[in-house]
Structures are given as C-alpha cells and as structure tokens.
Amino acid sequence: MKVEQLTITKVLDIQSGTSKAGKEWQKLTFVGETVEEYNNVYAFEIFGAEKVENFNKFNKVGDLVSVEFNVSCNEWKGKYFTSLAAWRVEKGSGTAEEAPAGDDSDDLPF
Fold first, then answer.
1. In terms of Cα–Cα distance, which of 25, 24, 29 is closest to 12?
2. Which of 29, 44, 90, 95 has its CA 20 to 30 A from that of 70?
3. Is pTM beyond 0.85 here?
4. What is the number of other CB atoms lying within 10 angstroms of the CB of residue 25?
5. Residue 7 — φ and ψ, nearest 5°?
6. Does residue 53 sit within a domain?
7. Per-residue tens of pLDDT for the chain, all 110 residues
8. For residues 28 and 6, is the Cβ–Cβ distance under 8 A?
9. How many domains does the chain have?
10. Is residue 38 part of a domain?
11. Radius of gyration of the CA atoms of the chain, in A
C-alpha cells in the first residue's frame, strides 16, 4: 500500500530490545498527516537498526513524504493489534508549507 503527500508530524523515541531468539532489534514509530478530510493520521513503524538510522538521517518533522507499507495484525491475549510497517519512505518536494496549493493560472473567472 502507499500513502502520498504525508507530512511528518512526530517522530517517537527509538525502541529496542532482544528477541526470544537472542537477536537485537530496533523500532521507530513516526506519525504523519495527509491532506484528506477524514482518516488522515497514520502511525508507521520502521524495523531494523539500519532502516531506523537512515530514516533519522534523511527525514524530520515537517517533511513531505510518500510511504510504502504493509499492514499486519497480531493477536495477544484475545486482543488484536494492527500495525503499518513502512518499507520505503521517499521525500516529496520540500516541506508541507512549501507544497504547491494548486496552479490557479488556468482557472477561468467564472
């Protein structure tokens, strides 16, 4: 799945730990908003130290990005949790404040 023109609004602290198999892991969650009127807030997770490092190196709050992601759902003690796992985050053109609001040069006066 893909979300276009998402403005990064918040980057949460990196979480890390050790899996049951003894492997170290890192996870970063970032939140963004689209220009849609409804259902426009998304929280994406990025897994892996290298991916987390690259995200932090190239992205910051206020950036306009497009995000490709997978949706997954896990059950734990009878409760279900859905997550959006981002696997590609690409820069848009500038920041949300700089994004073009539309080209009015071709608009008719009526």
1. 29
2. 95
3. no
4. 13
5. -95, 125
6. yes
7. 999 999 999 999 999 999 999 999 999 999 999 999 999 999 999 999 999 999 999 999 999 999 999 999 999 999 999 999 999 999 986 555 554 444 444 444 44
8. no
9. 1
10. yes
11. 17
